[in-house]
Amino acid sequence: MSVYNGATISQHMRHIYDFNSLCRNAASRQIDYCKRNRNPNIEQFTQSSLNAFMALEPMLHQMHEEDIVQVISDFSTDPQVSRKAVSFTLGCEVDPNLGKAPSTVKYERSL
What's this model's pTM, rounded to 2 decimal places? Predict the structure, then answer.
């Protein structure tokens, strides 16, 4: 299906893990989306995936909604555009559809 751009379910799971594992740096109050640990074992081996996700749990318990973090990311593919840093609390309100697949948004609207 072209909507998945050739990605497998396991590649999507690894991608989810990549972004959640960034929270490990939340203790330093900085999350850099460009410094993801792209671990292909999470895509290829079920036990590696399970172990990786389970390792996130203790770290998540140490985070608090009022913690302020700085998120650094690229918002352009143009190398001349500088990376942006945005500060916010972990518990801040965001668009409820942020990060959701379009199919999920459509489904939820149909309920």
Answer: 0.55
Please report, in tens digits, the pLDDT of each residue of the chain (111 residues total).
Answer: 455 566 777 777 777 777 666 666 656 677 777 777 778 888 889 899 899 888 888 877 877 778 887 878 776 777 788 888 878 777 766 666 666 677 888 888 899
Q: Does 110 map to a domain?
A: no
Question: Is 99 part of a structural domain of the chain?
Answer: no
Residue 40: domain span: 2-93
Length of the chain in residues, anyone?
111
Report yes or no on 107 lying in a domain: no
Cβ burial 19-37 (10 Å sphere, 16+ → b, else e): eebbbeebeeeebeeeeee
Instruction: Give how many domains the chain has, as a whole number.
Output: 1
- 46: amino acid identity, one letter: T
